Amino acid sequence: MIIVEGWVRMEPGELERLHDAAVAMIGETRKESGCISYSYGRAMEEPDVMRIAEIWEDRDALDAHFRSPHMATFNQALSGAKILGISVKSYTAEHDRTLMGDD
Question: What is the pLDDT of residue 103?
Answer without folding.
Answer: 65
